[in-house]
Each structure stands twice: as C-alpha cells, then as structure tokens.
Design brief:
28% strand, 5 helices, alpha+beta, 193 residues
Length: 193
C-alpha cells in the first residue's frame, strides 16, 4: 500500500501565487496542491493500475476532443488556480475552447486561473474517500460543471453536477458527457481492485 498524502500547514507563511508557482517549479518531482486554506498537499505517486486507468481515460477524452475540437484536455500534471482560492490538479480535466482562449498567454503557461468545465478524479488505494469528495465539492463551488469520481474500491462512480446532489452508480455503467462534453460516452467495466 502506498503512503497517504502529506499535508503541510503553511497557512502562517502566506505563500503568494508566484511563490507557490516557484515552489512547484523548483520541486518538479513533487505532486503538490494547495488547499483554499493555504495548506500544501504532497501526494504520493500512484501505482501501476491507477496510472493506467488515468491514462486510458485521458486517451478517450483526448480522442473525443480531437474529433470535436471543442476545448483543451489536461493531464494530472496541470495545476488550476481555482476562483475559490485552491490550486488543484485533477487526474484529467477539460476546458471549453472560448474560456481557454480568454486567458492571456502568461495565464495559459503558468497555473491557469480558471475552473475546468469537467474534471475526473480516480481514487487510488492510498486515498481516503472523504477528502476526494470534499475536493469534488470544491470544484463545483468554483464553477466546474461536471465531475466524475471513480472509486474502484467500492466498484462505483460518483457523478457531480452543478446544482445537484452527487449521483452514485455501480460499475459497470456507461457515462455521458451530457451537455458539457457533447457526444462523449464512456463505457466503464468493473475495476479489478
């Protein structure tokens, strides 16, 4: 079993956005997020199964996006500066083309100050479910329109939408990108846990 994320309380340090950016650049081997309260979350690397699932999903989302050319797809290495104050990196994300192009070149090159339209999170063996659910609620509060939280340990997926309670589906299931990712369908078999 991999270790759990390490939470560093640096609230009294008050890292500016630029200082946080420089910290991440200087420590490229670390997977770091910053909560809206200012705590740094150092995440362990994922295992082979989780890494494979993340990439397979990213490939499906990327193929759909290449065909539709409706937006931009992002990997788990991208940190988004959310309007609510957190700096988060979903396992995969998508932003509508017009919203992406509204950002300056510098904003696109650093940590984009935008909430994605869609996010995907995958619970790995080391993840507790409660913080991931809180993260999904944070995404919605910041403007994310649709989010999928995959939970292989429970053989289910949670669907998060603006203005609605999370919908929980057992696997296998087929997910729709709805109006956010028009025409995107994902058929999900049971995860081997």
């Amino acid at each position: 079993m991999l270790s759990e994320p390490l939470i560093l309380n640096v609230e009294t340090v008050h890292l500016s956005d630029e200082q946080f950016y420089q910290f991440c650049i200087a420590n490229r081997d670390l997977r770091v997020e910053r909560t809206k309260a200012g705590r740094l979350v150092l995440m362990p690397p994922v295992g082979g199964e989780s890494g494979n699932r993340e990439l397979e999903f990213g490939i499906d989302l990327g193929i759909w996006n290449r065909q539709t050319q409706l937006g931009k797809v992002f990997s788990s290495s991208t940190i988004f500066k959310l309007p609510g104050g957190g700096d988060r990196s979903p396992d995969a994300a998508w932003v509508q083309q017009d919203r992406w192009h509204a950002l300056t070149l510098e904003q696109q090159q650093k940590f984009p100050p935008i909430a994605p339209d869609f996010v995907f999170e995958l619970r790995s063996r080391s993840d507790a479910i409660a913080p991931l659910r809180e993260k999904m609620e944070e995404y919605l509060a910041c403007g994310v329109q649709l989010g999928w939280l995959f939970n292989p340990q429970e053989q289910q997926v949670e669907i998060y939408r603006q203005g609605h309670s999370a919908e929980v589906r057992s696997l296998p299931t087929t997910l729709s990108g709805e109006d956010i990712l028009p025409g995107f369908q994902l058929s999900v078999e049971r995860f081997a846990d």
